[in-house]
Every structure is written in C-alpha cells, then in structure tokens.
Amino acid sequence: MSLSVWKHFVASCLLLLGLLPAANALAKPSPTLRSARTIVLPLHAHPRLRYGADRLAAALRAAGYPVQIVQQDKLLRKKGLIVVGRPGDVLLRQAAAAWPAPSTPAPGKEGFVLTSAPDEAIVVRGTDNSGALYGCLELAEQVKAQGKITDNLHLADQPEMVMRGACIGVQKPTYLPGRTVYEYPYTPETFPWLYDKALWVKYLDMLADNRMNSLYLWNGHPFASLVRLKDYPFAVEVDDATFKKNEELYRFLAEEADKRGIWVIQMFYNIIVSKPFAEHYNIKTQDRARPIVPLIADYTRKSIAAFVEKYPNVGLLITLGEAMESAGQDDVDWFTKTIIPGVQDGLKALGKTEQPPIVLRAHDTDAPRVMAAALPLYKNLYTMAKYNGEALTTYTPRGTWAALHRKLSAIGTVQIENVHLMSNLEPFRYGSADFIQKSVQAMHGAYGANGLHLYPEASYWDWPYSADNVPGRELELSRDWLWYAEWSRYAWRADRPRPAEIDYWGQRLATQFGCDAAAGKQILKAYEQSGEIAPKLLRRYGITDGNRQTLTLGMLMNQLIDPKRYGLFTLLYESESPEGEMIIEYAEKEAKGEKHVGETPPQVAAEVVAHGQKAVAAIEQAAPGVTQNKDEFARLKNDMYCYDALANFYAEKAQAALLTLRYKYSHKVADLEQAVPYLQRSVAAWQTLTKLTKDTYLYANSMQTAQRKIPMRGVDGTYKTWVEMLPVYQKELANFQHNIDSLKAVKSVPVAQKAAALRNVSVTLLTKGITSYTAAVGQSAFADTTAAITALAPELAGLKGLRFSKVQQVAQGTEIRFATTKPVQLLVGFFNQKSPRYLPTPTLEIDASANDYGQADSKISNAIAIVGMPPVNVHTYSFKPGTHTLNLARGACVMLGFVEASQPVPTYNAGLGSAGGAGKEIDWLFE
C-alpha cells in the first residue's frame, strides 16, 4: 500500500470514529471516490465538439472522475451522462424529451446552456458548434475551480462581441537584407517558431481558453510563401522544400484553429509584390506613389484566388493604405476590382458559396466610402480601426477619431477595435483589469463597436519571445497571460460589477502565485496602479500615439518644450486623451494668466508619482505570501519599481520643462535656474531605471529600425536600452547648466545660432524637361504659375531649385531621376496645410516608408512664403552615391535642389508666411 493511500485510509477511519474534523479529513480525495462520467457526442459531431469533450474529460479526470467519451445518436441509459450537442441534433432532442428542463431563451451565436438532469446527468446545449465547445470549456473551468461538478447546474451564456481575436506578427525587429518594411517571407531561417507545432497548440489552446474566435497573422505579402501561380511561377519567394513545409504548416494551423472555433485571418498590405516578381519586371516591391497598374492588379487578384482555393478556412485582413497612396477612388477600385474578385475567383474554383470573412482596416483609407462600394458585391465584411492608435492611452475616446469609429459601426457590419502595438507599454508587464474593462466598455459605448483585435502586450516584432533577459528566452504568451485573459473576459461580457471583478482577478492571481486571496488582490492593485502611468504620460506629454515613439525610453527636453519640431501628432491630444492641455499650452496659459482646462501636465506629474508609490507598496505587501512562480513574481515586482522610476523621471522633467517655458515668456534666468534641480532629479530617476533594467531586459522596443524616432533614432538597433539613453540625458543636463552659465556671464539673451547659407551641389538630372531657378524673392517655384516667393529663410537663398508643373504634380505626382557621385540631400518644401492640392507631409503614423530617406522630420518650418499659398516647411531626403528615382505622391510641393549630405540643415521655425513671426528660440538651451 502506498503512503498516500495509507494516509487516506487512516483519515477515513478517524473521520468515521469522529476523531477528525470533516473539513480536514479528505483534503485531497482519492480519484476512486468519484462516480464515473460518460461524455456523449453526436455520431457525426463536429471536431469542435470533440475538442471540447477532450478538454472537459481532462478536467474531470484531474478532479478524480473516471471518464469515457462516446459518439452515437442514441441516448444511453446510465448515470453520470454529459450530453453535448446542438438543439437540432438527434441526441439533444432525445435528451430534451427524457429530461424536460426549465424553459430558457435560446442564446445567440456561440451561446450555450448548461443544465443538470436526473441521474447526475448534464446537458451541454450549444446554439452552434462553437457554442457547444464553449459550454464544455465553461463546465471544465467550473470543475477545475471547485474540484467537482456543480449540483443543480443551470447556466446560459453567450458572447457580446462578434469577433474576438489576437494577432501575431510574422515580422522581425529589423529589416531583412535587401528588403524594406513588412517584407518577410515565411522561412524556417527567419521564423523558426512558425514551424513549431507544439507552440501553435499551446497558443491556440490559450485562445480557446479565453473564448477567442479569430487569429490574425500579420505580414506584408504572405502569398508568395504559400501559393504558386501558373502565370507567375517565378514570383514564389521560397525554395521548394520550404514551400512544402509552408503548405503543410498552414493547413495544420487552419485545421487546429477550426477545432477550437477560431478563424485564421491572414493580413496583408497593399500594394506590395514579391521580391522575385519585382526583380522580374524591374519594379519596386512597394511604392506608395505608384498608381494601380494592370500587371500588379492581375498578380494580386490571382494570388488571392489561389490562396482562398488552397486554404478555404482562412479569412483576409486588408490594409489598403500605408503602402498605397491616397484615400480615394484608387482604394475603392483596388478593393472592389482586385481583392473581392480574387476571393470570389477562389470560391468559384472551390465550388463553395460560404464567404470567408474579409476585414477592411480603416487605416489611411476612406473606409466608409470603400464599404459602400463593396457591400453590394460581398456580404461577409468587417471594418477595423485602431482603438488608441498604436498605444493604450484612454478609456474616454472622443473627437474626430471617435466620430470615425461611430461612422464605421453605423455601416451595419461589425466594427472591430484594434488594440494596436502598445508602443507606450512595452516592455514592462501590464495587467490593469480596471483600465481594460473600461476600455472595452468604451468600445461599445463611445465607438459602437462589437469586435476586438488584440496585439501582444509587448515584443510584437520579436514574437514569440518577451524582452525579458531570461536564459532561453521567455514566451510572451506565457508571460502576458493576464493581458489576454482580461481583454477576452470583457470582450465576452463588458459590464461586470467591479467588486466581484476584484475578487475574481485577485483569486486568479492568488492561484498563479500560490498566495491567499488578500495577497492576490494586492498584486492586482499593483497592476492597476502601475497601469495608469504609461497611458497618462503619453497622452499628456507625448509626441505621437505611433510606434516612432518609445515612451519607456524617455523624452528629450526639446521634445517636451517644442513638440511641433518633431512632427506632433495632434490626434493623440484631440481624440485619444481626456480634455486637457499639453505642456506648451499650459505654459502659455500660465504666462497669460488664463484659466486651465481639463487634465494638466502638473496634475499628471503628481498622479503618476502617486501611482508608482502605490504600485510598489502593494507588490511589497503581497511578496511574503508568494509560494510559487517566484522567479516570475520577482520580475513582476521589478517592473513595479521600473514604473515608479519612469513616473519620477517624467514628473521631474515635466516640471523642468514648464519652468524652461516660463523663461521663454519672462526672460528671467532665475526661471531656468529653478528648473535645474528638477532636471537633476529626473536624471537620477533615470539612473535608477537603468540599474533596474540593465540585467533584466534585452531592449525597450521590439521594433529596432530607423522608424523609431523618439527619443532617438533607432538606426541599426541602437538606442534600444536605458543604458544607451543615460549619457544622452546626462549630456542634456550638462548642456543646460553650461548654457545657463553663459547667459548669466554675458547678461543678455543670445540669438540661437543658425547654420550658414546652404551650398548647391551638382547632380546629373535624368528626368527630362525640368528647368531650374534660383531661390529668391520674386522667383516662381513652379513652371506653370506666376505665384512668386515673397520671403524665404536666409539659409535657402541662392539654392538651385527645380521647377515642376504644379498641375502635373497635383494630377500625377512628382518623379525625379538623377545620378550623383557623392552623398547628397534633396530639399523638398511641403505646404503647411492639409489639402488634395498639396503633397502630404511624411507621416510615419500612416506611412511606414515615410522616413526611408530621413525625410520624416521638418527641418526649417515656415521657411518660405509664396503668394496665395500656405507657408512651406522644408524637409530633407538623403541619398548615397548612385542613380536614384524618387517618386512623390500627388500634390504640389516645392523642389529646392540638392546640397551636400555633410552640410547640416538647421532645425528651427523661420516664422514666414501666414504662420506669423518666429517665436523666441529656446531649444538651443539643451544643445
């Protein structure tokens, strides 16, 4: 007799003799004490029912029940049956006749009813196959939580959100050699995890546990890794062996996902073609300024048709914008004349009529217009838009962005909210159930949406790993289990009473870390206090909601006091934040004695510091009770201290920025001197954060390309750690102190230094018909208009500009081909007004190629005034020696000519044109 059996025998005897309290006698009852259970499925049950039955059986066996699974259409005459099916199944009709149950309204799509019946029976009735699956999973969870089957069970449930899914980026932190953004063929060398079936099973099980019904795979152009076209056989991007692996893997993934009620949805960008295809026809793989051409349309349509025919259980997610210029008729035509016909061609080849889902991203496109044209052609359509841009900032969305979401929701299809990229959260852990619940409620209430698309909480570009410095790497899906669980719980049902939710998550965390419920609630408190810090910081101090800013790497002083210089993305403040003020707005109102409105920078500074202190206190209070997963708890605890240090860094720096801006209006050096201690404490907080992260994290941001701009350019994987940023902030402080000393020594305010006049450099123009002009007052910058330059920044005087037809620029765009023997910069002037008449300013938030030539940031703003036109901002495009073709989108722009790449172009506001006079320059204080 084993020791465990002997202990159980002794306990049973003592209990019978009354010598042992019943509560302690059988703490771990022997499996043999449970009555047997038989799970009965219909004879021809869908694989989802079989999967649900297997999961239920595993939970029952763990609780000590002997279990068998049978498939038949006749109800057995025995005790302990668990009958699973749909109302129309013969088996379920027999169960309903044998065990009449209380009348329950039939739940909707994916819903289920669990009902106890005589002889210890239970009926799991799903509205559909997914509903039956979810009923089995719900019953399994109850058994796991309670250790037994609940008596007198009667439960009906169904999800609120129609689409509930998560995404994986089949992409990398850096570009592949010879390729650009989003271009990542499916290969074992690039993505070894993609071929790991055990990992896929683990991930899909996680989605099923969280009742998610969609999995999105993001990639620029996946088709050339998955299908071979008869008319374009050379377009395939992988070798034959890899192609076969991809076919087998993709079919496996689609089949396993379908078992769990999950649609695989393949995302792709437009217009991108495969590298072999591009090389065959001597074109670029992607060119935002390229119009629709028959060759690429034919290739894309046939790629989609072959994909749908080959993988019928897979849907599509379309990004019309970003790699395709304009949000007009081209988008409508591409969607209705290329993409939808491609899907229909594939269905026709299959002989199927069931339409796979097509999701249209409302990113850099006029989605309502596109949908109006598409719905008469295809019914199974959805729309998708970013919830808070590429970050998490608020649960009170408003303004024009909220209006767009409501407009999409009103179309009549389902609007899916995309919780996208989390650029302000990574790499630290995030698990605020309160913030997440309110966000999902806002999706319903403020946006009218009914779907969720969830990015990983961190390390999207480096999936499947987190950024934690752990031997062998840590899986993101394991580390961030709470992130997925919280979003999916509220996607299923958003309105749940807050006190009960605190109990629920406190118990989940207690189970995870082997502590009591009270300690579990303290861990939740730490998550929820720290969960306010990053959203508040970005929405009140940030430059953008996009991935060009890494919030956790801090911000430069000039980015706080002069955000417009860095391409301020105003939607962040106007729609993705509560009503409030930016630092520059607050400072101006202070100087003018005006009343402040809404959430203010000093308010947020005080609040985030308090949140950090409370998060640290809560995690410390929970620590003594932790008995399992101690290594992970230590990492979580460290994250709380990281958030605390980050909060202090920003709070002190924001106060320093406000005092610096006060000097702009007061001209008192004493204001700058008051700012020094704040900036010193900010640097000290950064030193603390550096120590906390040096050995615990590999990087702050998983996207390590030149698209990363704030606080520093992330060229070649640089400036991705806190250690790299520390000297930057130390130097910034030293410069500030030195410049204050200079001000005090000369007793006057120096004028910010401007660079000398820019020097022309010769290139060989290969585009015919371009004439030149000398940049000067009285000159016309266009070949077909007499509108003259009335003022220009002194650095630009004498440049050899290039005259293009303004009419042609608006109608067709601008192309310039040239050759150069040395590195050069091309100066391009963008009109400071949004209009179809003017070339759009490079904007990384909507165009991932907007900084391919270093053109994203404005150099001299309001640099040129032209009669009857808005002021002109000057940007620079950098080129290496060689022959180049630059294609710019439709819209007028001013071509100011070429200068040497080594010659610095100053960054400042010249204040010309309708923008008014230049303000007092103070950026130099930190440079």
Could you explain the architecture of this structure?
The protein is an alpha/beta fold and 927 residues long. Helix content is 39%, strand content 15%. It is built from 26 helices and 25 strands. The strands form five sheets. Strands 7-8-9-10-11-12-13-14 form an eight-stranded parallel barrel, surrounded by four helices. A six-stranded mixed β-sheet has the order 2-1-3-5-4-6, with helices on both faces. Strands 17, 20, 21, 22, 24 and 25 form a six-stranded mixed β-sheet that branches. Helix 18 runs parallel beside helix 23.
Brief descriptors of the model:
single chain; 927 residues; alpha/beta; 8-stranded parallel beta barrel; 6-stranded mixed sheet; 26 helices; disordered N terminus; Hex-like_dom2; signal; hydrolase; Beta-hexosaminidase bacterial type N-terminal domain-containing protein
